[in-house]
Amino acid sequence: MPDFVITAPVTPTLPVEGTEAVFPVRRVYCIGRNYAAHTIEMGGDPNREPPFFFQKNPDNLDTSGQFPYPPKSSDVHHELEMLVALKSGGTNIPVERALDHVFGYAVCLDMTRRDLQGEAKDLRRPWEIGKAFERSAPCGPIVPASRIGHPDRGQVELKVNGTVRQEGDLDQMIWKVPEMISYLSDYFELAAGDVIMSGTPSGVAAVTRGDVLEGRIEHVGTLKVTVT
């Protein structure tokens, strides 16, 4: 064992549904504006342009069921997404082989300090201050693809305090999961433990303390999070 000069950080993990095993997370890639209606509501062009990605930190993933309202923001938005967990990787992965690298799927939220993200956009700066803050990615357990296959259609729905806020379908993704994996592998060497947050449908909106968020992705699972 190496002689670390400080205590080694703990490897972030996600539970695997139905087992005591956990999935170690290496990197978190997030695709932006991957549903046409959400692209329009954010002021973008829904035509199929090359995808773009940003990153969160692995320890931003949180399975506690609670989302602490973050500092330095008064406009925090929910974005319900399907998470894709990779069991292997590589470079220049062909689209037709991309799903061979998927371990499973989960329901997650990309919580966003929208005001800080907006300021960063206006200044043509990176988005991390609005996206990659502590516990900004509430997540449910991973469901293995060996159990559910590779869902490419199914309802995506988020309720806030019992009222539907976001609604869409996985088949509305502009860039499908195999395409995302292949595209990323052209620019990064993907590896086991990488996860991809695959974009959100329209209806993103602000949350307040005390809100209860209930997400569901058909064939994948559910996620319940309270804003504290």
UniProtKB/TrEMBL annotation:
Keywords: Hydrolase, Metal-binding. One of its GO terms (molecular function) is acetylpyruvate hydrolase activity. Residues 28-227 form the Fumarylacetoacetase-like C-terminal domain. InterPro entries: Fumarylacetoacetase-like_C, Fumarylacetoacetase_C_sf. It comes from the Bacteria. The keyword Nucleotide-binding does not apply. PANTHER family: ACYLPYRUVASE (PTHR11820), FLUTATHIONE S-TRANSFERASE (PTHR11820:SF90). This is Fumarylacetoacetate hydrolase family protein.
